[in-house]
Amino acid sequence: MKNKILITLFACLLPLLAGAQQAVSQQNNVAEKDYIAYLFTYFTGNHISEEAVCYAVSTDGYTYWALNDNKPVIDSKIISSTGGVRDPHILRCEDGKTFYMVVTDMVSDNGWDSNRAMVLLKSTDLVNWTSSIVNMQKRYAGQEKLKRVWAPQTIFDPEAGKYMIYWSMQYNGGADVIYYAYANRDFTDLEGEPKPLFIPENKKSCIDGDIVFKDGIFHLFYKTEGHGNGIKVATTRSLTSGQWEEQPDYKQQTTEAVEGAGTFKLIGQDKYILMYDVYMKGKYQFTETTDLKNFKVIDSEVKMNFHPRHGTIIPITRAELKRITDKWPSKEMGNMTIPNNPVLQGFHADPEILYSHQTKKYYIYSTTDGQSGWGGWYFTVFSSDNLKDWKDEGVMLDLKSDQVIWADGNAWAPCIEEKIVDGKYKYFFYFSGNPTAGGGKQIGVAVADSPTGPFKDLGHPILTESPVGHGQQIDVDVFTDPVSGKSYLYWGNGYMAGAELNEDMLSIKENTLTVLTPKGGSLKDYAFREAAYVFYRNGLYYFMWSVDDTGSPNYHVAYGTSKSPLGPIKVAKKPVVLIQDPAKEIYGPAHNAVLQIPGTDEWYIVYHRINKNFIDREKGPGVHREVCIDRMEFNPDGTIRKVVPTL
What are the positions of the active site (predicted)? Predict the structure, then answer.
């Protein structure tokens, strides 16, 4: 009786354990918001020259380009005992930066019952791999009747806290059975004896297992070898329990023979892709599902410039995409190899950009996004020397630490100014925060000797009240007039205000405070909402601002000009500078900064847009934003040409 109670209790705890492990995994792993592309690992055919690992990439999960001219990226002769490998399965580890790959050590020309081994590979950059061969007959005693070892895959088992490798084996006179063993810590060998993972109720052969974890349940996709040649699914809450619930129907959406199921989740969506090798026809089929039970064919949406065999797909980050495409370029992919936008990894909004004359580098500061209620509490800074490759320099101001004593959250919309004070560079960082003492948002300033900090907060806010009696004290901008050398601060939500800063850059001259809100307009054109930004060109002061709500696809940028840093502002005849392009799935591009390349008349607009996968209102579009950069050009009369946002 005690054992039954313990078993019942353990079964009840399993979902909690899995949930806890998933939370830990999400903490340690790369967040889904940081993925921008997909890596497809596959082999190409049944000749030794084609039995090798190849790479392809996609930026949307539907269109794939082969890298390295569809040639291998890993030499099978070096890593295998047979000279060929098949069925590559790739996995990102729980630490987010290590990758495991397992492959069948096999050359088909030697016969389908010729192989006895698998290869375990490990990498931290997707380019350089270490490898180990695990030969079952040599590794374990009593394996004389072993005929074949096929299609290994790897999954993290949260109950064991280890990586499980599972594969199918067949012995003389028996069925193909999916076995498992745990990998050792170095991922170079197996621990313990192989044990059966899954044996279908009919006791017939099954191969090509592919396990997907969703909603606390492990879904095993497998091929019924020799008695239907289709793909079925069995589910369990515990990988090693032996308790599997089999679904009766076949999941492939074709009457042709298939194998090599591979399942992956689309980035930022609730959709999964089940793909499989239609091996007798030399093609792949893609199907789409939201519940891992019902599938629809989407072949018309899928494009490839190669013909893969049995492979797997994982999401990758911008840095990883760049690394592998730099190593193995794709001629056909061309300039689309690395998407220009977004330029920062992850969710960020309200960008400010600085060119530092001290370091000769560019820096982006932003609101850390992706948190409900705009609940970010710290600021990070990214650096670049070419405006394309951005390095995360880490947290440069934390409102919940002792760095800032007057505010503890809602770290929003910063700006920064580089000044020379007493012969040394100083950096004045203005930001809004939620005051610990209560009340509406307020604006503070922190100072540093470097663009990346450490920054020291003044100790109290410098702007606490609205000059018009409503709206929020947020979205601050700082501007130094090249004509007078004076510096100005601008801010406001629901109103635009501006004032001259005192020489110490730590307070405003109260008698210069001016309400600058552009008059008139509507949400379709130029009604002021927030995010003032000021720059100077050819005798004119340009004022830019954002229109509509930050969570709206219609959120966009308008502008006007003035002959003074404190107005009045004359709204442009064609005021819209930047607006959504639904055909390109570009939504809500606004809250901008502007960059002039030093010594040139080359200008760029830096802004955020809503990530296309979070445009639905229930998905929080206002907190799932990403930073982009596009060229901004002027007409001969000084008016701003409408910016064409790019992907």
Answer: 350 (proton acceptor), 530 (proton donor)
